[in-house]
Amino acid sequence: MTIPVDPQATEHPHPSEREPLPRRDPRLEQQARNRLHPQHLSALQALGRGAAAPQERWMGPKGVMRRNPHVGHFIAANGRKRIDRSGRSGPAAVGAGQPAVVAKARVLPLVEIASPAFLIAVVPDMTGGRLSSHDRDVLGLARQIADADPAHQGAVLAVTFGTLREEGDAADSVGLGAAGADRWLHFADILHDGYAPLAQLAELEAIDGKLTPRLWLLPESRTGGGERGRRLGARLLCQGDALARPSGNAYQLDGELAAIGRGELAEVNVTGRSGNGQQDLTRALTRIVLCEAECAEPVEDVRHAALPLEWEPASAARAVPDVIEDLGPVAVDPSAIALGEAEFILSAGNGIRDWDGFHRAASLLGATEGASRVAVDDGFMPRARQVGATGTWVTARVYVAVGISGAIQHLQGIQRCDKVVTINTDGGCDMVKRADLSVIGDAGAILASLCQQLEAERSAGGDGPSVGQAPAALATSSSTSSSTSSATLAADAA
Fold this sequence. Notes:
This protein is of the alpha/beta class. It folds into two domains: 110-318, Rossmann fold; 334-493, 3-Layer(aba) Sandwich (Rossmann fold). 27% of the residues lie in helices and 18% in strands. It has helices spanning 7-10, 26-33, 40-46, 133-146, 171-174, 176-179, 197-211, 225-238, 258-261, 315-318, 355-365, 373-377, 408-413, 430-434, 443-459, 472-476, 486-493, and strands spanning 57-59, 65-67, 73-75, 81-83, 110-111, 119-122, 155-161, 183-187, 215-219, 247-255, 268-274, 279-284, 288-291, 303-304, 307-308, 344-348, 368-371, 398-402, 419-424, 437-440. The strands form five sheets. The chain has a nine-stranded mixed β-sheet with strand order 12-11-10-13-9-6-7-8-15, with helices on both faces. Strands 17-16-18-19-20 form a five-stranded parallel β-sheet. Strands 1-2 form a two-stranded antiparallel ribbon. The radius of gyration is 31 Å and the shape is globular.
């Protein structure tokens, strides 16, 4: 049997007519398999396996929202891709290691109370010209009282004295609106600056007579709040106000807070610490409350207007005899200051190799020494100097972390610090993400350059930082830098 054969079938096609053979790119496939590779997304797109904009969140099979950890990332100073678990970065751009777009700062909704039914007056300490964490807690308690009854909406009046640390005279620059204040009275003249209890008492007495606030809330502190509240209570008691007896060391209000807006103070009880903190004392609420720290949660979700009030200073304040003279702050040994009370802390971690240089830098800067748990466990620092959840929770205005990677326990202990500066060799560590100013480099070299700069300026007759106080540049800096030389830091700190 003969099978006919097509002659064209036996002929070999011309090379130009052949179909191109599929070629594999092993390197591209390897990049597609490696999720941490900077070219991962572009490789997936080239192979037809991925989309240009990968999905960031999706609903899981059990109804739980799932998040893609490989979407939000940034490129560290060492050129390595780091996953951003803080949620501050958006979807990553397709390309060779392009960093994710940083999300814009959240704009809080503005709340403005035009005609309040009553006022809650708060006199924050404003230590160093700034709101402290204690002041924010007191404003948070005032906010809870003012918002207790929606039918009788109250307003929070903040009364401040002296020179403010922040630039400008707006309430937003001070942070009063974000802390919950609706009205603001500020006395910035030299008469009320510094330690002037008699002049300040005259103004508080005039405010109580004209505005008649329902309550006076002041922080129970040694920096002015406790003394102001007790002086005001004694003055009002002499005028016949039986409810002006101060309630000291208060940390909790029991009862219906809405009754305060109606003027029924007897319906609410206040609990404070007594007996040197060994027992609690519960009594009826009075018009003046001296609040302990953490008496309430600070305001975080909204921003209030903090409208400035026009006020004519009381004539009695200018007629006060000059019997008290403020001589200014007294220099103290930073090593004698407890960590919980220090305003400027220089803390050391596992990255410190030259401990003599660290102690020398702390002495020249006038900073209180702190340490991480690793440094304490290794025996380089005493246990009393440990900062963190397992040590001491600090509320410093400036906290400088040298060679600290930023464990979760340590970050918990510094969460109430105003400004955080870090010196580290790893640009992608958690402490760098937390810091307001980051310096990437060797800690020993940077501290040595800093000490050299400070000694040079002092030998030349320049004024260095006061003992126990933070340098002005470190206290006011709020920018983040991933590559700053030691000379720059030395100049800023000096």
